[in-house]
Design brief:
single chain, 5-stranded mixed beta sheet, globular
Length: 329
């Protein structure tokens, strides 16, 4: 039976779908979502597989557009708070993600919550109920029969387990202590997995994530070059893979600006992590970096865990959703 995984972030909507046991089809879209009347006139309805077109869904009888750049929404402020998974925008992204699977019936959907929320039974059950059942979209009703909710970094860990082929790396994964760092847009999550078991007491969440990093980068650009760069525009540039940025007539290479911002933000996030690990007896053998900002934290992590192997997930933005899909049983 067809199954799917949804990783609904503040910046990206990630979807993996297919038949359990086989390779998933992965789609990544921007996580902009708002009532359709917030779209500019230049936006038109089109093929939901076209990455520049919105996906239209029904939310409480109102037509919403989802899966678009947040900067394309007029007079709409997206949710950046801990209750994101209870908002209409989140539900619109759930339904857009279901449309992107191309299926009308899904036997199982696996999704995730930040580590700090995944152990809260009230939150996990509310999210499960949100996704379970029938969903109205402009391609028809889509039904979900079962839902599983896991801690987000678990997805990146399972993705590594599935992809690893090097015997030495596999030994560290299976018998050692693996620290998964998931640098998302709103939260920086970490999870410690020792010999394949999640240590919840040594896992946690910091809010020093990509949104804070982009705010620092925007301030730096303004101080050096003038003008008023916005974090939302920088976010779009990073998502599009642009290497340069035009600021007040100056062409700026983005990577050094982002790495400088990361060095400032990472210290706060990793100090919270250090405190969480101080009672843990196991030494960290492998550090896995995932999420949209994962690679930017690499230098700081190297200094914090000398001797550990540091691995960046292949296509780190999609690491969690690929691992979620492998969690389908």
């Amino acid at each position: 039976m067809p199954a799917a995984a949804l990783d609904i972030g503040y910046s990206n909507l990630k979807v993996a779908s297919g038949r359990p046991g086989g390779p998933p089809r992965v789609v990544i879209r921007p996580a902009g979502a708002a009532p359709a009347d917030r779209l500019g006139e230049r936006i038109r309805q089109g093929n939901p597989d076209a990455t520049d077109e919105p996906i239209f869904v029904d939310i409480q009888g109102r037509r919403w557009a989802a899966g678009i750049e947040p900067a394309r929404l007029d007079g709409w402020v997206r949710s950046l708070h801990a209750d994101y998974a209870t908002t209409d925008a989140y539900l619109a992204l759930v339904r857009a993600g279901l449309v992107l699977t191309g299926e009308r019936y899904l036997d199982t959907v696996v999704t995730g919550l930040p580590v700090g929320q995944a152990s809260d039974l009230r939150r996990t059950e509310a999210l499960r109920q949100l996704i379970l059942g029938q969903h109205a979209t402009e391609v028809g009703t889509i039904e979900v029969a079962k839902v599983r909710v896991v801690a987000q970094p678990v997805g990146a860990y399972l993705d590594l387990v599935w992809a690893a082929t090097d015997p030495a790396l596999l030994d560290r994964i299976e018998t050692g202590a693996v620290l998964v760092l998931d640098a998302g847009f709103y939260s920086f999550d970490w999870a410690l997995v020792v010999a394949g078991e999640l240590r919840r007491s040594a896992s946690g969440t910091s809010l020093e994530a990509m949104s804070v990093l982009l705010e620092r980068a925007a301030r730096h650009l303004a101080e050096v070059y003038g003008g008023k760069p916005t974090p939302i525009a920088l976010e779009g540039a990073v998502r599009a893979g642009r290497t340069t940025w035009l600021q007040a007539g100056h062409t700026v290479t983005l990577e050094p600006v982002l790495r400088q911002a990361a060095s400032e933000v990472a210290g706060v996030a990793l100090e919270a992590l250090r405190q969480a690990l101080r009672r843990e007896e196991a030494n960290v053998d492998l550090v896995l970096l995932a999420g949209g900002g994962g690679a930017l934290y690499g230098a700081t992590v190297d200094n914090l865990f000398p001797g550990a192997t540091v691995v960046v997930s292949e296509d780190p933005v999609a690491a969690n959703v690929r691992g979620f899909f492998r969690h389908v049983r």
